[in-house]
Amino acid sequence: MSQQVLWEVVKGNNAFLVKRNGLTLSTDPFNNTGVQTYSSTGFISKNAVGVVSTSGKVNQINNINLVTKKSTKFQQADRKTKNTQSVYASTLAVKHGVHTASRVIRKRFGTSRVGLQRAALRKLVKLNRANAVRRRNELAAAKAQKK
Amino acid sequence: MTSVPLVSVFSADDSSKVTAKHIPLPAVFQTPIRPDIVSFVHTNIAKNRRQAHAVNPQAGMQHSAESWGTGRAVARIPRVSGSGTHRSGQAAFGNQCRKGRMSLPIKVWRRWHRRVNIKQKRHAAATAVAATGIVPLVLARGHRISQVPQIPLVVEDKIESYEKTTDALNFLKRFGAFEDVQKVVSTKVVRAGISKQRGKKYRVRKGPLVVYFNENAKLLKAFRNVPGVEVVNVTRLNLLQLAPGGQLGRFVIWTQSAFAHLDKLFGTYRYSSIIKDGYQLLRPLITNPDLARIINSNQVQEKVQPAKTTKVLHEVQKKNPLKNTKAMDRLNPYAKKQRVAAAAAIKANTKGTKKIKKNKALKKASRAAYNKVAASLNDATKAAVQEEQDIKVKYFSVQKGAAQTE
Q1: 16-45 in chain A: CB under 8 A from chain B
Q2: N or C: which end of chain B has fewer CB within 10 A?
Q3: Starting from the edge strand earliest in sequence, which strands make up the sheet with A89-94, in order?
Q4: For the complex shown, is ipTM > 0.90?
């Protein structure tokens, strides 16, 4: 479905829209900027990558997941990989470091949509840094407990 | 529509099994999305379930109140007659008065219902059905469909014979629809306002809509106790259920026969509907709404003129050419040459002037004299230092000698 048409339907009201303090924000997992705008709203586009922090159900070092949007033209989810695929997205866990994930992002966007690419990369880096801090604290706490 | 999208029908017992692999999508799902029609039709149709109510026509008027007129140092509003009670002499009847009747009291003959043109209602229903097949719209409406295997979700007719709620629940779990039901359960809230005392205690979200076909299906009873789930027959599809709140994109679960019936119900672009007499599906204004693709297509790019480079008309900050040589050169290319020539002329001039020559000579002489004096001073100091050194050496060597002899 055309992104323009979907935007006209969705821009006024959608489940991810948050309006607070005069700001129009979005909790869309495919939106890496947090602000609801036409280009940054990934769930209506064909090609989007969301950098999402997970709650830690899956045992990961990094609590980051990459959610890549699939073309939703009546595709079925692959039932074998139930946890990582859905009708509209496939999830990639970012396990060690940030390099494979950034490669995925770069490949997705290529030379076009540089702004979106940068937003995704920026978020990835920031989440990674935050996780590093968290891990450091956890390690320190574990050490303290051992003592 | 050259290629018709295909849809799979899933087995009711096992969500990984597909009973019918490639069924063409009914034409309704290709209807253009028209939120304007849906919004209009919804606001009007939503009024049709209203029950008449009214205010007691006698409310606030059950007095023999009369205005006291002028001259009594009170407002001219009608006042309650009689005496012996606080109420007497108080204002009555007006909407502004305490215990008075409201302005324009509601009458039972208020126009509660709205009629909408049948064609508009049908277009709205068609668009709403189309929207149920578009994943981003279903997501935007807030349904949790991350575990659902396919949208639109079509299941074999077996679910129509479900009688037990457990069967229904397990079915929903198998197809990833239970997440949506859980959302409904967890967001059940006590309603704000008086309505909670009037039989509407809770505000409950909408979950999946199950659409069946066969009239003697029992699944209504199986599904009706599952919170959020609604069940409806294809022939009675309701815009208020397909687009609750006027918002497109309800999560719908179709049975196979219901899905197959849609073509007869709404017709296709080749033939008009069989059941809705003379109804023809809405045609899109633009067949290809993907603007980006159109603009970047070969056909357009061939005809289009090359992109104009942004021409800088002037620098962003104005520089004064009288002070800034580069700015001056930009305006007057000959200025550079002029400047060079002027400098050369000055230089040549300064070389020849008598006064300047004299000054130069004087400078030279004075420097020479200074150097002379400085040199003689230098010599003198040198000599003095040397003398001192000699004395020191003599003295110390004598001392040493004295030490040695001792």
Answers
A1: 16, 43-44
A2: C
A3: A49-53, A64-69, A89-94
A4: no
